[in-house]
Amino acid sequence: MINSEFIQTRLKILAGDILGGLNSAIVTLPQALAFGVATGFGASAGIWGAIILCFVAGLLGTKVPMISGTTGPVTIVIASIMHSLTGDINLVIFIMLLAGIIQILIALTPFPNIVKYIPYPVISGFMNGVGVIIIIMQLNPLLGKPTLSNTIECVKDLFGGFAAMNTDALLIGAMTLFIVFSFPKKFNKYIPAQIVALIVCTLISIKLGLKVDRISEVSVSMPEFHLPTTNLHNFIAYFHYSIILAVVMCSESMLTGLVADSLTKTKTSHKVLLSSQGIGNICCAMTGSMCGVAATMRTVAALNAGATTKIAAVVNPVVLILLLFKFSGFVAQIPLAVLAGILIKIGYDIVDTKLLKVIKFAPKDDLYVLFTVFFLTVFYNLIAAVGAGIVLAALLYAKRVADRAELIEKTVYDKDIMKLEKILEKDYRHKIRVVHISGQFFFGSATQMISKFDEFLGTKYLIINYDTNDKLDISAIFAFEDIITRLKAQRIKILLVMNSKDVITQLENHGLVDEIGRDRIFADEIEAINFAKNSLKNKIKRRFF
User: What's the CA gap between 192 and 173, in Å, rounded?
Assistant: First the structure.
């Protein structure tokens, strides 16, 4: 028999999910409309994309409710693709379809586990760039002018076209900005400022009869299923666009997963998350709707309202459908300047203000990476920016590690050696030295190591102690080979002290063990010193006695 406590618990969970789905839908509506218009697909594609993706990915996805839909970074990528393809909707839909397939494939690779190693300055530079792009691109519609999809064109047009602005659009847009930026935070968690601005400013524009551009038409009918027509040439020519879109969608979805995990104290499966998002985006592409990701702001809104299960991800699209069918006439009257004001606030929220407050204390290397990613994101290409940032961060890290790598010399003081050195007063080459390779010996430090070994030329027996277990990369192996060649040219005997069998195997595979001599590789430094001492004694005896 089911007890009353069990029923109460289930009802409480259901109530939380319904409230979470409702709250997230209110957040979704203005954003989906604005992002749809910003990409050039139209408001209908934005709202139906949010409905389809949230429903499919919600049902197939993780236990933690993920509220999905188009977001700022995805919007910028799609708008850029749309601009590059001169508005060819069929091609853009094909690229979105392919991106969804790539998402599923990525879910089967180790990529989800690698993303967490992307440096924070890269993420911050990218997000700051996306936020600034959204703000710049919405300045034109805020002034009642046509939307442009390129930041450089937007900046040029902005400075050259103030005379062509629509004062009615600027008025209602400024009012939107005032509401979204000044709305009290204590009320924002109950009713989002964006929906308040959308309703109030639209009603004012209708009552005052303002002459502004509006959404005009929103389709309330279910999108029709169709496959985009394409050919092999398009697949080859535009495949890189799909990669760009898929990587952005995967990265942002996983970021939302991490945020949700921290709020719910759970562990989200990134593979399940990405595969469900991929299937959802394929469904969106097949219906001509906007693709998207697990949206952080909407997911947090649902969780904060009490959502705990997938039901919230089903309630969200149901609420959106009801709003769309019930208020489609009102939605059609929403001014584009109002949507521009909402997007400017979204762009501002994306900007990493936390880092900007402490930027003067940040290490120079982090700033180099951050500003490189930021400017490439804003004025060139999003994925090129992230790629350049990761490479630059890796090179700067390699330099820091290489700078810490050094050779530490230990002169061998021994009674036997001291006596021998008295005999060899005129020949200082007959010395035994031990050098420790301190730090990482890899491609970044290999060149510096080679130059440092030149300081030990003149030594008769040089004991190189590499006492770490880190494997050598190919640059370090070639560096070892160069070091051996240089020292042997000076008739310096090389002894190696190594504890790692894997490193010895590496040297053996490259023929360096035979080059040095198997009898001159030791596991213990004392053994190597004794070997050098005995060899030196025998040589001196043969020479002088």
Answer: 18
Q: Which long-range contacts (CB under 8 A, 24 or more apart) does 510-518 make?
A: 510/477, 510/481, 512/477, 512/480, 512/481, 512/484, 515/481, 515/484, 516/484
How far is C-alpha 467 from the geometric centre of its chain's CA atoms? Answer: 35
Across-strand partners of 435?
Answer: 409, 464
Can you tell me the distance from the alpha carbon of 279 to that of 60, in angstroms, rounded to the nearest whole number? 9
428 has a pLDDT exceeding 50: no
Q: CA 349 → CA 178, 335, 343, 344, 517, distances in Å?
A: 15, 22, 10, 9, 64
Residue 187 tokens, joined = 């009320």
In one-letter notation, the amino acid at residue 465 is: N
Burial of 539 (0-12, 13-18, 19+ CB in 10 A): middle
- Cα(23)–Cα(299) distance, rounded to whole angstroms? 10
What's the CA gap between 127 and 460, in Å, rounded? 58
The residue extents of the domains of the chain are 4-397, 405-544
- Nearest residue to 69 (alpha-carbon basis) of 362, 315, 281: 281
Q: Are 278 and 101 in contact (CB under 8 A)?
A: yes
User: What is the predicted pLDDT for the residue at 172?
Assistant: 93
CATH homologous superfamily of 405-544: STAS domain (3.30.750.24)
pTM of the model: 0.68
456-486, pLDDT tens digit by residue? 656 778 888 877 777 776 667 777 777 777 7
